[in-house]
Amino acid sequence: MYNQPMLRDNALKDKTYVVTGGGTGLGKAMSTYLLELGANVVITSRKLDVLQKTATELEEKTGGKVLAVACDVRDADQVENVLKQTLERFKSVDGLLNNAAGNFISPTERLSANAFSTIIDIVLKGTVNCTLAFGKHWIKEKQPASILNIVTTYAFTGSGYVVPSACAKGGVIAMTRSLAAEWGHYQIRCNAIAPGPFPTKGAWDRLLPGEMAEKFDFKNRVPLKRVGDHQELANLAAYLLSDFSG
Questions:
Q1: Which residue in 54, 66, 78, 240 has the fewest CB atoms around it within 10 Å?
Q2: Could you tell me the CATH number of the domain that includes residue 37?
């Protein structure tokens, strides 16, 4: 397992990145590494108190600059406000990391139409809202940029009990491929990462409460017999957001 930082010090100095769902879990881990590499980071989610706590923690840990902006990615106006506040604080923005997500772990027949729509709205429409807002800005400014979408392995393979998320993430993959082809001539790069099992405290406890954690040990389903380390994902995310991947 390679769980050490991959890029050189200050590789992202003076760059600014927006990370949706950046207050906790994998979003927080990726934000941390971007800051360690010298970038400014804007973190968003619906819970401002969590964001502010994370922003303070990450600034103290890395010495970097963090802007916390409450945003429901389903609301295009709130997304536009994130762009506005980012430009007011940091003058420019170099990349967007679409990480905000939602899921219901449930037999599909037990889900209401509203529950299904909620996941589609957060994952697919939310990613669309953010991508359009920032993409239009970069095209207008003739600015090269990078968009990175966090998807999931079961968007390719299929999986039971996560059908709304699989559908939504599948749509994000299609959008990523299509915009990579369409916006490439603007020097806007679009990529996606589909992580396997990467334990996070909150999500892991909800997914596998109590004894289920031992019964459904994900390590036993992975050929290497281990789950992912957050630094591994952060390394790949930083590379794809950076000019090194251009």
A1: 78
A2: 3.40.50.720
Domain contains 2: no
Instruction: Confirm whether 225 is domain-assigned.
Output: no
Note the pTM of the prediction, 2 decimals.
0.93
Among candidate residues 2, 17, 33, 154, the one labeled active-site is 154
DSSP annotation of 5 reads -
Buried-exposed string 71-104: b where 16+ CB fall within 10 A, e elsewhere: bbbbeeebbbbbbebbeeebeebbbbbbbbbbbb
Please write the tens of the pLDDT for every residue from 214-243: 556 767 777 877 887 889 999 999 999 999
| Range of the structural domain that residue 239 is part of | 16-200+230-245
| Number of independent structural domains in the chain | 1
Q: What is the mean pLDDT of residues 178-192?
A: 99
Q: 65 and 42 in contact (C-beta within 8 Å)? A: no
Give a yes or no: residue 4 inside a domain.
Answer: no
Give the per-residue pLDDT at 211. 60
154 as an active site residue: the answer is: yes
